[in-house]
Structure formats: structure tokens, C-alpha cells
Amino acid sequence: MEDPLYDPLLPTSSDKRSNLFNVVYLGSAFSVLFIAFNTMQGFESTGNKDLGMWSLFTLYAAFSVCNLFANVIVQRVGEKLCLVIGAATYVAYLGANLYPRMYTLIPASVLIGWGASILWTAQGSYLAKNSTNETMGFHSGVFFGLFMLNAVIGNLMAGTLTYFHESTTVLVWILFAIGVIATISFFFLPRPFAIVEVTNVNSPPATKSLASQLTDTLFLFGELKMILMGIVIVYSGFSQAYFYGRFPPTFGEKWLFWVMATFGFSDSAGSVLMGRLSDLLGRKPVMIVATICGLIAYVLAGWFSDPERPWLFFVIMALFGLSDSGYNTQLYATMSIYQPEKIEAAYSFLKLIQAATTAIAFLFSLYLDLKWITVIIGSSMVVAIGSFLISDLFVQKTDAPKPSLEVQ
Question: How far apart are the C-alpha atoms of 175 and 113, rounded to whole Å?
Fold first, then answer.
């Protein structure tokens, strides 16, 4: 006898498990790729010094510009192929670090900037296709929880190699090999189960021109809710330059990788926790807790950190990890709520602003001392949480609408 409440358009529990597996696979593949890249990125400002900072500035500047076109490329080429091609550019950048010179690192930085734009837009699109409004927070948490394990594994590996006095060249070769493995893994990414939201059942698939796809991202800058979320993204971009570029050199090479591993563990565990809590309690409490953790950490970093008290670096980066996990998971989940019909454009919008502000922060990090940078980025966090709350309270709720079941 057929169940009268059964709807073939709704995902079954088996479908949901399959999509959760896809999210786990995606997060694991990203984690492997960024074991290689983030470990190298953390070393750029410490090992390659000014050249490394200029490399990262160039990378994120190119990343920002290329995000204007990433939406078009992902829609035309598909998520899987974009993930493979994007990952390959990360491998090229790692290869350039085997012989770090201006004429090797800067061109490689431009290339990876383009590759990162399609990689992250494809990631956001694939994650959304494997999620519903009700599971987006949890799936974002699972993805970022697995993704941030890269900082734990990569930095523990690098710290161990440094402890045994292995050369930088050996480390880069290992990271290069890991990048190749990650790129291959994207070839086997499973196809998502096509989730059809009930509100969209009667909506025919839209066929858009190339120009329309390109302008989708730009038009988001005219929507009030996206402008307010854009302010939150500005802080997110600034913070990445602080976490991976400006603050780590204060640790010293002895503590660098161990402290960054603490950051990764805190960010990873926090991502799963924050993602689940946002589905249970809503996004506002998670964002407020993440902001409190971040502000405490900025005060400690700017006015109390001292190489004579290395234990404090571990406390600061653990707090930053919790804060970063809250902002990452909630930004991704909110994009899917605010732009369910333009998800690729929404993630291009996110990454465009995030990459541009990360590039700007890397640039002014070359000229300002730590306290001024801390004041600027900490202040931007206060503005960000204010903007988020205004958007949620007065423009559009950031939480998914609760599903209801009506029996007729």
C-alpha cells in the first residue's frame, strides 16, 4: 500500500546519507589539498618574508578579480572539472616554491588566484546541491570541520620536520606530492542527489545567457541584504590575512607550526559545533559567540602577546579558530538562504569580496605595525556583527524557515 504522505520529489533518508557522504568526501579532498597549500601559505610570510607577502597579495588580488567570471565558468564547465583544474593550479604554486623568486612566485600567484576562484565557487555550488535549507548549517560545519583539519595535520607534519632539522626543500617536495594526490582525488567526486525544494517544484529550469550569468554576481551588489552581508565578508577577508600572514611571524619559527596546528584544531572542532548549533539555535547566537571569542583574541594579540610567553600564542589562536569557524559556517549557510536561485553567483560574490579584502590586508600589513593592524581588523569585526544583526532583524532572516507538514 502506498504511503499517502510519500512525496517522490523529497529526498529520502538514504538520499540524505548519500549527500552527507558527498560532503564528507568534498571536505576530505579539500583538507588534503590545503594540507599542502595552507602549510605553504603560513610559511610564506615567515620563510620568504617580503617576497612571500607580495606573493600572497598578488594571489588574493587575482583571486578577487577572477571571481567576477568564476560563476560563468562553473556553470558552463561543471563543478567536478573546475575542482580538478583549480586544484592543479595549487600544485603549480607549490612547484614555484621549490625555486622562490619574483619571476616564479608572482606568475604562479596569478595562476592560483584564477584557479582558486573556480575551485571555491565550485565548492559552494556542490555543497549547496547536496544540502537543503534545514541541513545547510550542519553540512557547512561538516565541510569546514574536515577542511580545517588541514591546519592540524599540515602544521604538525611541518613542525616535526623542522624539529628534526629537515630542509625547507624537503618540506616543499612533500607538500607538492600531497597536492598532486588531492588533485587526483577530485576526479572521483560523487555526483550529488538532486534535491528539489517543495517551493520550487513548479519552477522550470532557467536557461541564462553568458552575459546574464556574468551580471548575476554584479547585480548582487545592489541588494541591501547582500550589501550588509558584504560588510561581514569584508571582515572575514581581513581576518584571513591576519591569521595566516601578519600574526604568525610573531610566534618565531620554533613555535610557528605548533601554534598554527592549535588554530586548525580549534577551527575544525568549532566548525562542526557551530554548524550544528546554528541549525538548533539559529545563526545569531553563533555569530555573537564567534565575535566575542574573536574580540578577546584581538585584545590579547595586540597588547599582551609576547615571545617570552609562548603559551599565550596557543590561547590566542585557539580563540581565533573558534571565531573563524563561526564566521565561515554562517556565511556559507546564509548565502544559500539569501540566494537559493543564484547560488553560484552568491558564492562568487562572497569570494570576490573576501579575496579582495584579504589582498588589501596583506598589502597594508607590509607597512603598518601589529597594533594598528589589530585595531583596524578588530574594529571591522564590530562593524561586521552589527551589519549581520541589522540584516537578520530588519531585512531578511538568516535562519531557514521551519518546514511544515500539512495533511489534507
Answer: 19
